[in-house]
Design goal:
533 residues; alpha+beta; Immunoglobulin-like; five-stranded mixed β-sheet
């Protein structure tokens, strides 16, 4: 065999020698398994983004109904989604063709399942090391250049749906699907070289699959960016136009003791202030109320007898969208009783393991020092009284189905028991620079010190920690690099991978483990994927 003069072919031959050496050292399986892991991760990421995208169209259409000038944005949903679906299916077809012609039949099987051409089922690509199929289909037969043009056409289709004055800024926010700079920088206008040859020539099938899946990820990300652009235009996330109102009564309490005074605030929801709502009027049972500078009026009356009481609230205001005066009317009720007891968790009717659970206990008409409070039942609970008269409950184990932790209250001539469920603290959400994934500038990405867990919507003062994770860097035309990280902050190995981040790199944070107060073992809280831009 003669020594080739052409540098790239010489490089390819050297790579073959290196691959042969790697096979001799029995490490090739790990490398190809890494490609398989990356491809599987990208596929799951794409499915998650598609599911998130599916929730936006209805919100956009609802937002577009507020004004006739917004309806044009609703008409752009289907063209964008159809273009993204068509492009994604073309990439799927290309992936299936590579798999079929390299020795397997992709067929309609579960994720990761294939069939040999003789019908035997397998989870391993028979032709994962096949370089002839990729070179023939994507380079020699022009499949790569066709794919490139289709991706460029898709990019322009999405841009054409954006308002002309927004296109430049929008173009900077969506992924750059095709990057011609790398191969042109290396080979310039050298005859015989193009984007397809640079990316796919003599590449094994298993390595090409994540590259194609990455293009698919860019397509779905572009669709997501466009749908969020439409959502912002119709005001589903910002610039909300208030065009619906209702009257609200907010009583201090709905069950009062005979002789006490019933008191409630009455207002229209979505009202701003009296200054900006000069036409606002409120009344109860036909009696006009004085509206304060915050758009709120107060109604009160003495509870003179036991039983259910009703009152009717009426209001009027000018709609800022239609400039029409609108009338609102609603009837509320409250109950007047005598002695009763109230047991309520200050946060919610669930006790959480690992944190103090505030509880308020009161018996109407009985002094607090004459009320006895205790714990019993499941959950291993204890209750302690604070100096301000409130209580704190601590629990140690979740309650089985049908069993409860019980707070028991007793006073002279009265007793009551309230059931509570015991749960673990909800799993936190992993974040990097307050993001759960997606694109991130390399400078921002490198500036982060590690992963932070966030407890969203959890009212208690609790802090979870990251126990560890696996960081995978996938750079263009390079083998994946992996670091197993202990704790939430980057270890030295992870810092080294992060410092390499350049545009086009993809970082996977996998097997993220977290430990919350009360946990006996770390829990799995999912994965994150970031694309460096």
């Amino acid at each position: 065999m003669s020594i080739p003069k052409e540098p790239r072919q010489l490089m390819i031959n050297i790579m073959y020698l290196v691959l042969t050496a790697m096979l001799a050292l029995n490490v090739s399986a790990e490398i190809f398994n890494a490609f398989k892991v990356v491809d599987k991760g990208l596929k799951k990421s794409n499915e998650a983004m598609e599911e998130a995208n599916s929730a936006l169209p209805d919100l956009i259409r609802d937002g577009a109904k507020k004004k006739s000038t917004l309806e044009v944005y609703a008409t752009r949903i289907n063209p964008a989604r159809d273009a993204a679906k068509e492009m994604s299916e073309k990439i799927d077809d290309l992936i299936d063709k590579l798999i079929d012609e390299s020795g397997n039949i992709n067929g309609k099987h579960d994720d990761g399942d294939y069939m040999f051409k003789d019908g035997k089922k397998t989870t391993t690509l028979r032709g994962k090391k096949n370089t002839d199929v990729t070179t023939r289909l994507l380079v020699k037969e022009g499949g790569g250049e066709k794919l490139k043009q289709e991706l460029l056409d898709f990019h322009q289709t999405i841009l054409a749906l954006v308002d002309e004055e927004d296109r430049e800024s929008f173009d900077n926010e969506i992924p750059e699907i095709i990057d011609d700079s790398a191969w042109k920088e290396k080979y310039g206008n050298k005859k015989g070289y193009n984007w397809s040859k640079y990316n796919f020539s003599h590449m094994p099938v298993q390595a090409v699959l994540p590259i194609l899946r990455k293009f698919q990820n860019d397509v779905i990300s572009s669709e997501s960016s466009f749908l969020n652009y439409l959502a912002n235009k119709v005001g589903t996330t910002t610039d909300l136009v208030i065009d619906k109102f209702t009257v609200v009564s907010a009583p201090e309490k709905t069950y009062v003791i005979k002789g006490e005074q019933f008191k409630t605030e009455v207002f229209l929801t979505a009202s701003a202030s009296k200054e900006s709502n000069t036409d606002l009027t409120l009344s109860v049972n036909g009696r006009p109320l004085t509206v304060d500078e915050n758009g709120v009026a107060t109604f009160s009356q003495t509870a003179s007898s036991v039983g259910k009481k009703t009152y009717t609230v009426e209001g009027s205001i000018k709609n800022p969208v239609t400039d029409e005066m609108q009338q609102f009317k609603k009837t509320y009720e409250y109950e007047v009783g005598e002695r009763s007891a109230t047991i309520s968790a200050s946060k919610m009717n669930v006790f959480y393991i690992g944190v103090p659970n505030p509880v308020e206990v009161s018996v109407a008409g009985v002094a607090s020092n004459k009320v006895n409070v205790s714990m019993e039942g499941a959950g291993g609970g204890t209750i302690k009284k604070n100096s301000d008269g409130t209580f704190v409950v601590n629990v140690t184990s979740p309650t089985p189905r049908g069993q409860f932790a019980k707070v028991k209250v007793s006073a002279e001539g009265f007793s009551a028991t309230k059931d509570f469920r015991v749960k673990r603290i909800p799993s936190p959400i992993p974040t990097l620079s307050k993001k759960r994934g997606g694109s991130m500038p390399s400078g921002t990405f490198k500036a982060q010190g590690g992963i932070l867990p966030v407890l969203e919507g959890f009212d208690f003062d609790a802090k979870c920690d990251i126990a560890g994770f696996r960081l995978v860097r996938v750079a263009k035309r390079q083998d994946p690099e992996i670091s197993v990280n202990s704790g939430g902050r980057y270890t030295a190995d992870s810092k080294r991978l992060v410092s390499k981040a350049v545009a086009g790199d993809r970082y996977f944070f996998e097997n993220i483990k977290s430990r919350c107060p009360g946990d006996k073992a770390a829990r799995d809280i999912g994965t994150m994927t970031f694309i460096i831009k």
